[in-house]
Each structure stands twice: as C-alpha cells, then as structure tokens.
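pls ignore typos typing on phone
iron/sulfur cluster + seq
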Amino acid sequence: MALNSSRVLDRNGPITDGWQRLADDEAVKTGASALVSFQRLKNEHNALFAEAAAVGVEIGGDVTLEELEPFLPRLGLIVVRFAFMRDGRPFSVGRLLRERYGYTRDLRAVGDFIPDQVLFLLRCGFNSFEVGPNFSADALKHGVAAYTVWYQRGVERNQTVAEMRLGKAKEQA
Amino acid sequence: MYIYDDFDHTVAQQRVAEFRDQVGRRLKGELSEEQFRPLRLMNGLYLQLHAYMLRVAVPYGTLSATQMRKLAHIARVYDRGYAHFTTRQNIQYNWIKLEEMPDLLAELASVQMHGNQTSGNCVRNVTADHFSGAIEGEVEDPRIVSEVIRQWSTFHPEFSWLPRKFKIAVTGAEKDRAAVQWHDIGLHIVRNDADEVGYTVYVGGGMGRIPVLATKVRAFLPKPELLSYLEAILRVYNRHGRRDNIHKARIKILVRDLGPEEFIRQVEEEWEASRQSGVNLPPQEEMRIARYFELPPLEKIAGPVAAFEDAKKQNRAFAQWVATNVHPHKAPGYAIATISLKPIGGIPGDIAADQMDAVADLAERYSFSEIRASHIQNLVLPHVKQADLFAVWQALGKIGFADANAGLVTDIIACPGLDYCSLANARSIPVAQRISERFADLDRQHKIGELQIKISGCINACGHHHAGHIGILGVDKAGQEFYQLTLGGAGDETASTGQLLGPGFSSDGIVDAVEKVIDTYLDLRQPAETFITAYRRVGPAPFKEKLYGAKQ
Ligand code: HEM
Ligand code: SF4
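k done
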C-alpha cells in the first residue's frame, strides 16, 4: 500500500518517498523498497534482503533494541511509531539508535505526534516524519525554528549553552 | 541569586514566542484542545473548575524583591489581586484568561521567571531547602545543583514526554527540609571519606494514592557525574515506565515492579554505557553557577546583639515569634526569619498583591533583596540582622503575617481542594481555617509544640497528608464530604508514611477529632516529647481508643 493519505516531511517540508509499506501477508515487489513490521523482518529477513531493493522496518517505543541490532547494518529505514501523542519512548529509541548503535540512515517518526514535537524529535536523531492530512507543514517549519540555543547536547552534536559560555569566556580572556 | 545571561534570556524569549504562537493556533482551532493541553500544561496552565489556573515556577524557592513585585503586579492586572504559594515552592493564580497568557509570560520573562515545566509529564521545578545558603552545617548550597538541574531539564530533547510528572528535590544539610525521600529523585549532598562532594541518590518516592518512600539507589555519586546519572535514571524510566494507566505511571511503580535491585542494575548498566557521552557539565560551568550563590556581603557582627536580646525580654509576643519563626543563621549576628502565611483563620499560602509588595520592601530593606518560598507554604527572609528582627516583626504585623506559629499546629498545609480543584472530593481550605481558629490561642499552640497538620482534598495528596504528623484526607461518602485521619507521617530525614486511624469524620466532626488526638498526646507525652516522637513511642492505640472507644 502506498502512503496515500499520508505524506512524508523532513525539517524543510514535504519530500518524495519511495518506500512501500507492506502488510505482513503482502508480497514484496522485486526491486521495490519494502517497509515491513518487525515481526516480519524477524521471520523473513533472508528473503526480504534478497528480494527488495531496500528494507525498512517499523518498530514501536517498546522495542528491544538488542533484537534489532543484528539487522541494523542492512536497514535503510527505521520507522518508530508513536502509540499516542504523549508517548515519549520514541525520543529515547531515536537517541539510542543514533548514539549507541551507530545507525546512520533514515530514521522516521509516525503516529500521533504534533508539529510542536518535531524539533525535539530532530534533536533525538529523527530526520523524517510520516504525517496525516491535518498535519501542518507550516507549523512544522515554524516549530523547528522555535529555539536556537539549547542547554543539552542533541544527536546533532550542537554546542550546548555551557560550551558557548566557555567559548565566550575564552574569547574575552 | 542566579542571574540570567544572554543565553538564558534567549531561551526565555523564545519560549514566550513559542507559546504565543501555540495560543494563537489554539484560538484559531488549528490545535485541538487535546493537542494543546500538554503544551499549555508545560507552561503551567491548568483548566480548573472556574477558570484557568497558572502555576509560576519559583526555582528552588528563591525569589528577588523585584520578582515578588512583578508577581504582585500580575495578581493585580491578570488576576483578582491575590495568589497562592504552593507546597512545591511555586506560586499559583486562579483566574487567568487564555488570551492574556502570552503577555503575562512576557512580563514574567522580563524578571527572569516562567511557568516552564510546572506541570506536564516532564521534569518539574526543582525544589530545595528553603534555608539554603543561610543555615549552618550544609555541605554545599543545594541551589547550585538545583540551578544546574533547572538548566539541564529545561526543554530536554529526550525527557519532555515522560510517563508521568517527575519531581526532584535537593537538601544540602543533614536536617532534611526538602522532603527528599518523598520525591521521584531526592538528592542529599554529602562528603565522602576522601573529602569529595557528591550525592546520596534516592529514587521512587511519591505520594498520590500509593504513598512510597524513595529507595536509596546510590550512597555516593561523585558530583561531576550527576547529569549522566540523572539521564540514566530518566532513560530507564522513559523507556520502561508504565503508560497504560495514569495511576501506575510514576517511577515509584517501576521501581516497585522491577524490584529495587533490578531497577538499580538497569540504571547502573545504562549509566556505564552513557557516562562518557559528554552529558556531564563542564566543571567551569558549575563554578560559574556556584558564584551566584555566594553569601551577600554580610557585616561582621561579634557577640550577642544587645538590642535584640532586650527586645525579647521586653516584648513577650516578639519573643514568642522569635522562638518559632526565627532560625539561627550561619553568620553571627544574623538570622533567618520565617514569614507565616498562616494567619489564624486564613487560607494557607494565600497572599494579596499589597502583601507581596510589602514583603518585597522588607526583603530589600533587611534581607539583601532575597526571599524564599518554603514547601510549607510560608515565605522566608534568609539574611536578616538580629538587630533588625524587631522592626521586621512589627512591619509584618501591619500586613497580618506576624503570627508566631511556624512549625506549630496552625501552620497547616492544605491543597486547594473543592473550592478550586476539579479533582477534589472535599474542601480542604475551610477545614484548615476551622482547625486554625480552634487552636488560635498562641500559648496553647506553643504548649503543644511542633506539629504538622497536612490536608488533601482527594487521594492525589497535593496537601502531603501522607507526610503529616496528622494527615487529613477528604473523601466522598455517598455525596457527603468526609475526612479520614492519618497519624505518624513525616517528611524530614526520618520520613514515614502516616497510618490511617479508622473510619472518617464528617466535616463538623473532623475538628473535634483533631482536638481529641492532640489532647491525647498532651496527656501521654513525656517531658520534651514532640507529637511525632510521642506517637512513634506509643503507636496508634491510645488515639484510637480516645476517638473510637475501647473496642477498636
Ligand atoms: C488545583 C489544581 C491541581 C490539580 C488538578 C492537581 C492534580 C494533582 C494530581 C492528579 C496529583 C497526583 C499525581 C500522581 O499521583 O501522579 C497531584 C499530586 C500532587 N500535587 Fe497537585 N494538583 C493541583 C494543585 C496542587 C497544588 C496547589 C499543590 C501545592 C499546594 C499541588 C502539589 C502536589 C503535590 C506535592 C503532589 C504529590 C506529588 C507526589 O505524588 O509525590 N498540587 N496533583
Ligand atoms: S489533593 Fe486532590 S483536591 Fe487537592 S489539589 Fe490535589 S487533586 Fe485537587
């Protein structure tokens, strides 16, 4: 099933996206980029990696990352689903995938999150967002520009406020 | 006091702009109430019975005179001329209009204040000992690490959508005035055998319907590693805390369900994997923040202060006030003065705009412009010359805040209860008022001695009844307000959970019941025994017998 009612955005707005989300009993179209459930990945990984041009997986915030780890080098997309808007687990999952497991390719959020959360998702390592028809791309653009300085370091390795202070102190010294 | 630099100002301004935008989108219908709700909560805005309620953070309870004047201004312009100091060192306004919130937040930001994270499922305003920096015997002023935590937890990318609210408290002294064992994380600043400063870390305390005292998860955490350790705790919680049931979502339930050993193992494992990841604060930054909390330029005062000693001898009422409301300062000749927001028959923690201005004047004149809010819903002037105490006391008398009752039976904590709160089963404030009136006689109060009564209007326990020497819990019994009594709770370093005594009392009966409990204590106490020490010696039996008869 193509992503009909939904769109994919990155921090700048809509992007074109070739991934096909497959139901667990849906055949892989040879040469297509297949997005499958974690269960299917576990059961059929040999066939999937052989047939599809690229393989992506959708996980939830309750994922056991140790189980996903063996597949990481061959995955082209990881989609983390928000079970509901206030589900905060994807933030930790994203950061762990990037910082501890060294995953570098597409990391996407899907589900009930709102534009105001996207900046935080970016800072936890997400780079794309599958959203419904009511999700405002303008609000997203606005939201990601809401803050320019941070007290914490994010996955993007920004300078923290403390480091900026030290830099400033050195300059003045 | 901490003072914002350009970076802090930028963050504060951007927050106001963000919320202005969010309110605009809500009013235009672009955000549904369901989507908007967590956003407004993270700015301290609740929807209550009659109007919006705003909770403004007073980080670790420290306020300047300028900030207090701004709070008074906000009470006048945006509310009905008064506000309410809470048990979490915050201040609340009860009659706020949504459309006015952005301007209100801009006014707060102009004096380095905000409503950030005073509600919502995030790291809340950090609380600390209200005598911090002024009291003898601290390893370190807990406000330093509290400010470190305030900055680190502000808009944290990973931990802003936790399973439930998250409260951190810090004490720097052996005597715990911050109730650290009742918090999600409690930090006790200690020194180890090698003379290094660090923290004893407690996790998983909380009140609500399941009262739990925190588990000690680490006896000594080196100071430079605090933030990475906090992140490890929060990451374990964020990933594994329950999200299916709001009543089981606090970290205390995760600690219970995993078992303390397994919880600690997971935290330590997470910490080992991430402690080198650069989360810890550079030591220079810690030192920069610490400098803001150095003592103000106090005078050197030698020997007893004659004017102060004479005033106590000549004025019994003043001497009584000194006995309860004045604590020794670490500098000779100075004192810490508690301003009781518990006038007889008043609403605990309420303060009118004119009173706020008057307190600001006093702070400016006598306490280096510094004020503290305590979790007992009182205010504190932390650095007053003993020689000025009499003048301070007289000035407080003029605004009705000179009651000599700090720590006594009428120094009651009460939540807003059914008068304001949409979750309440029963009223709390009128019960507090009637108990206060019953024990109005100051000599009787002083004879009873130290006693903490804490009242909550429902099982959420915002009034800390679990930690009250005498706790009162409002319940609904077939549409009637009823009140249960618990005895033996405490929030200090000897923290304990109050035990339910027996069947509840009607609104009329509860004050008599409290009086009976107190009379029973007076009859059985040994010399110098406070209520709580006597209760711990004799247990509930004598009290049950007095209240419910011999059968019980
Ligand atoms: C009037 C609006 C208020 C509402 C709707 C409200 C709601 C709640 C709820 C639902 C809880 C239980 C949380 C849980 O168990 O996870 C709670 C706990 C608490 N609230 Fe409130 N509250 C209100 C006002 C206040 C006020 C005015 C104070 C301070 C005086 C306060 C201080 C606390 C504290 C200290 C707790 C206990 C925290 C713990 O469980 O460890 N709340 N509140
Ligand atoms: S204890 Fe209950 S009644 Fe009191 S403020 Fe909290 S939620 Fe409301």
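Chain A has a mean pLDDT of 93. The first helix of chain A runs from residue 38 to 51. more later
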